[in-house]
Amino acid sequence: MKRLLVCMISMLAVGVAGLKAQVMDNADVNAKWFKTTINVKNGGQAPDVVKLLRAFNEAMPTWVVREVLQQADRPAKGTRQSGTASIWDGKDEDDFRILIDKKNGYADLASQTDVNQMSACVWRKDNGHRIFAVSLYEQHVMPQHLLCWYDYDPQTQKMTPAKSPLASFEPDVKGTDIAWNLPMTGTNFTITEYYVGLPAVTHVYKWDRKEFHFDHTEMADFEYRLSADSKSTQRISQGNAWSHYCIMDLTGEGRPLLAFCNFYDGEIGDMMLIGEFKTDRVALGTMTQDGEKLNVFRGPKHRNGEDQIIVVHRDMAGGLWYNVVLGNLVQYLVCDLPNFADPDAGHTVKVTAGFGGETTDVIDQLGEWIDLSKLWRWRPIEIKEGEEEEP
After folding, report:
1. How far is Cα of residue 316 from the mean position of the Cα atoms in its chain?
2. 195 pLDDT above the threshold of 60
3. pLDDT tens-digit profile of 149-179?
4. Residue 41: alpha-carbon gap to chain centroid
5. pLDDT given at position 315
6. Which residue from 80, 105, 185, 242 has the highest number of Cβ atoms inside 10 Å of its Cβ?
7. Exposed e or buried b per residue across 134-144, where buried means at least 16 C-beta atoms within 10 angstroms of its C-beta
8. Beta strand 212-220 with 382-384: parallel, antiparallel or unpaired?
9. Is 316 exposed, middle or buried (0-12, 13-18, 19+ CB in 10 A)?
10. What mean pLDDT is predicted for residues 313-341?
């Protein structure tokens, strides 16, 4: 009896170990995919997205890919068929949707909750090869977001790890949250940068049936306040048609400012800085060719020890406005205005917006001037209609 019990326990342990081995998490896949060549059984000349996904899952099984393959093999009750797409509307206990589109080479499992997610895509090359990509998203486990990228050779029927556009991509600020998108429709591959308090920046890569080429950078239209102490707003698409943008991490603390500009004869003519004030995006100042000026200085240390940046803007009437900023967050706004009623009385200096406890003596403590035109990388930008998407 004792021997039988030990045997049963051993068999149970082997069974549990086997179940664990059947599914890998993103960290395991990340350590393995780029050095793993995958055989595609009966791949042939034109394998569809399900066949390639099945081969990937046999080499590196995951729960989320398994769910998609099960839906491909045995569509769940209540599945709606729409062309080549298979969409399953889950209930409360099954809060994810699976879509499989063999015709267009796309499959995914998407959710608005904490369920692990994935997407897969196939691009056809002129030489008969295929590019196959799998994107895996895992909640609360590092790495959360993983992209596996392969070249499929129909002669060998093997998928070999290849470099994606993500491999050489560098965000404007190190440590920035980035996400990528495999196209459900079309062929573009996109990489998006997300910054706290600022709009997302999306880089679009075009497919030419040989490889991907960077095409342009775009940003969704957004609303901003004209200053921290103003309730007036407008959209970034209004007024100047900004041609270039720059992400400026002036303190190195990961909360950068956003700048827009236009070039004239190779020199910056118009410029505007965007920051955040009490959850609203605000203009910190503008520079135009008709006399308004914009300058940025390093300020004194904040009481919490962080570096402060001071954005100084001169208006057409000759007043000076000082946005005191931590990262991209406006702490308070100081105005230094001519006393038009009594010129002999000098200027009127006061704090017009802020979080309380501010001081006006910061304007006497300006440090090093920062040359925005030369220090940072300006890149072309396209402003797109429509609201920005959440990460």
Report:
1. 37
2. yes
3. 999 999 999 999 999 999 999 998 888 899 9
4. 36
5. 82
6. 105
7. bbbbbeeeeee
8. parallel
9. exposed
10. 88
